[in-house]
Amino acid sequence: MSEARNTKQKKLVLSLLKNSDRPLTAGEIYRLAIRHFPKIAKSTVYRNLDALVSRGEVSQGLHQNGESFYSIAGEHSHSHYMICRECRQMIDFPQCPLSSMERGIADASGFHITGHSLQIYGYCKDCNNKKKN
Amino acid sequence: MSEARNTKQKKLVLSLLKNSDRPLTAGEIYRLAIRHFPKIAKSTVYRNLDALVSRGEVSQGLHQNGESFYSIAGEHSHSHYMICRECRQMIDFPQCPLSSMERGIADASGFHITGHSLQIYGYCKDCNNKKKN
DNA sequence: TTATTATTGCAACTCATTTTCATTAAGCGC
DNA sequence: GCGCTTAATGAAAATGAGTTGCAATAATAA
Question: Model-level pTM greater than 0.85?
């Protein structure tokens, strides 16, 4: 049968995400991971992230440029982000306008929804002020 | 001053999008464009798409894998898509749950919203049926 | 401890998108 | 139409996120 092995690399990836106060890209996770296991491979980070995502422990979003970011899938909260185009700061935005609409949207077309991706882009307060000066 | 030149390549990219009944990726546009101008460069397609997007004439979305797709920015309609993970079919989904919420979401944090990205992923009716067999 | 095999490290690869730079061609004034 | 300026192009190389093949390693069950 399938044997999900609990390797130290997998634990590390998960703990890095747990200890982060914001979502991280695979690259960021890799750079952090190296500090703990200098020999860890990029592919290992990617494979573990994929596994964690399909296992539902981690959720995945997309930056404007197509790069993925990851965060612990809140046991209940399902949140999205406002992302600053300037400093890339990500502001949590807990209400999900989709949750209440998915059923209705899908039913019409027989579409089976498995998830969605939602990000709001713009400029945070600080960067917005800087632009005015 | 800035001279936005109206090249035949730019017109072509725009007309391909106008004549398409669905959003197209840069790669698809490039492959179509070659039929008209065999020497057109991929970079030219990308540059024109970028220009059209920042000019607001074309809007841009993201596939799950980070690849961008483009469509004419409806003069009034602002629509999103349900994208099939299997056949990549894109089903229009005209209501935008964000339009009514952006103000409220942004005000709290002083965030200045410039746009958003929203895609719903899942399986279309056909692909869903195939999986069951 | 040992056998099994999931997972790893590493290097090579894919593929969308970007960049560099010499060449071409819009759009301007004449 | 003619020439000039320079934005835009084509071609090729580069970038960078993510993937893949494979031999070596290490997490589990026996």
Answer: yes
